[in-house]
Amino acid sequence: MSAIFNFQSLLSVLLLIICTCAYLRALFPSLMDRNKVGISGTLWKCARIGERKSPWVAASCIMMALSLLFFS
Length: 72
Hints:
This protein is mainly α. It has three helices and no strands. The chain has helices at about 5-25, 40-50, 55-70.
């Protein structure tokens, strides 16, 4: 089944994208410029969410990991 049609998989993919973009922005700041549009702009927004909401993203990652370990 595709990750789009399974809500738990969709949330896992979104969390992975947010965490990956924030990590890559920390390593290579010039890679994601906020003036870009399209997919680069979307990835920049995901990186910004990961940077600004990091305690909430971390808590979501922990809850998702526990959910995948014990309820799947």
